[in-house]
Amino acid sequence: MKLRTRSSAIIGTVCLVASLALTTASADEPTAPRGSAEITLKEVARAQNPIAGAAGPGDTVWIAERAGTVRVLDDQGLGEPVLDISDETSVDGERGLLGVAFDKEFAHFYISFTNREGTSTLDEFAVRDGEIQPDTRRTVLTQTQPYSNHNGGDIRFGPDGYLYIAFGDGGSGGDPHGNGQGLDTLLGKLLRIDPSGGEPYGIPADNPFVDDPNAKDEIWAYGLRNPWRFSFDTGTGDLLIGDVGQNDWEEIDWAPADSEGGENYGWSQMEGNHPFRGGTEPANHVPPVHEYGRGGLGCSVTGGYVYRGEAIPELKGQYLFSDYCDGTVRALRMANGEVTGESDLGVSGGQVISFVQDGKGELYVLDIAGSVSRIDPA
């Protein structure tokens, strides 16, 4: 591991301008101004395969680069790496440095990556005065991955203060090991742990399977194929997950803030709302709140965030997402866990690999080819 000091360079900007017509507000949102809003994807930095990010201390955004570096974006641009684990990270298939997160107090920084053996690894660092303390590094959790795809790797703290971790079904195709529905593995799951509640971590007492001897205590939800980016709505606490489909259907899953966990999103019995290869719909299947077919719309959903910023009032309360193959940024209007409308925002973020939400609720779009762009009003 290499730790480097912070320096900054001013980066030029490129603007992509489009018009957006949004006229319907969510039922639980104040009515936004009606009509059209011009929006911009404003390139604020270039990075080496930016893949994930998190709001950091002091109005910064910390950007993870796939090969194993972390850089800090502030009003001066994107600085030199503050963390470098590239000598420990594998990047074959869909592997790499796949997720980063801070706890609420910015006291700890977490990284989710695949090590040289391809094992999913979650490490923790203490943070003091906005700087990583390398001598405090510890490994919190590991998970062996049988294949180099569907590793998942996104991490996020929930409104409850616990750390959530998304793992794919382990890879190959069609879930050959049945991990999506198997409760005896962490693969194909959304996990919920307390990283400060034990060594190496604690299990929240109200996790849904803690009293089931045939299930892993860490599991919060299951039936996921490759959950590529999940988030919590900072306004409501609701959970949204973008789950990549097999051949035909991409899906977005939802759970309310008061969920007690245990949702079964269906894979590999279901692909979206559709039985997969003759599978039978599980009795406890929670269908996606939104799905789309691959006919011209893309091939790999990239989950995003519910917009809670102030710069674009017309977007407030709407869920923004994209597709890695299509790149168009889209918005879902939702009420009571149901989609009431969808908008094509008319801008392309390239090969959209992730969204990032800053401390003020504004959103950034990461293009794996290098662009870091902020969603701005024109």
UniProtKB/TrEMBL annotation:
Keyword match Signal: yes
Keyword Signal part of the UniProt annotation: yes
InterPro entries given in the database record: 6-blade_b-propeller_TolB-like, Glc/Sorbosone_DH, Quinoprot_gluc/sorb_DH_b-prop
Keyword entries, A-Z: Signal
Sequence ranges assigned to domain Glucose/Sorbosone dehydrogenase in this UniProt record: 49-366
Signal peptide: 1-27
UniProt protein name: Sugar dehydrogenase
Protein species of origin: Streptomyces corynorhini
